[in-house]
Amino acid sequence: MLSIPLGVITFITFNVRRISDQERMKLIAVSAIAGGALGNWTSRLEHGFVIDFLDFHFKRYFTYPAFNISDCAIVIGALLMGVLIIRDEGQKKIAGVHP
């Protein structure tokens, strides 16, 4: 279980070199994902589990699952990457490029 985040970080590190200067937003997205994975991984190494310290409740009706800053970085990076992929696909359709 502990080797999965390390494998992801290694994969991202080796593939970051392929990202051109024009794709800096992809680099930011990938870095956020890698940073979040590294944060959760170090917490798991140190404590044996990930410490989630942000926990939101609204009266008795709503409880949002607990999370941490690393989780936020992973989600934001993944959302940014999704937006960039959708944008790139749209630009390919406009340009008439077919996969």
Could you characterize what this model shows?
The protein has helices at 3-15, 24-47, 69-95, and strands at residues 57-58, 62-63. It is mainly alpha-helical and 99 residues long. It has one domain. A hairpin with a 3-residue loop joins strand 1 (57-58) and strand 2 (62-63). The radius of gyration is 17 Å and the shape is flat. The mean pLDDT is 82.
Provide a short characterization of the protein structure.
This protein has one domain (3-95). It is built from 3 helices and 2 strands, in the order H-H-E-E-H.
DSSP strand tally: 2
Q: Helical region count? A: 3
Straight-line N-to-C gap: 36 Å
Number of domains: 1
Unreliable residue runs: none
Radius of gyration: 17 Å
Strand arrangement, largest sheet? 1-2
Morphology call = flat
Beta-strand content? under 5%
Specify the helix fraction band: 55-70%
Question: Which helices and strands, and how do they pair?
Answer:
Blueprint: H1 3-15, H2 24-47, E1 57-58, E2 62-63, H3 69-95
Helix pairs in contact: 1-2, 2-3
Task: Using brief descriptors, characterize the structure shown.
99 residues; two-stranded antiparallel ribbon
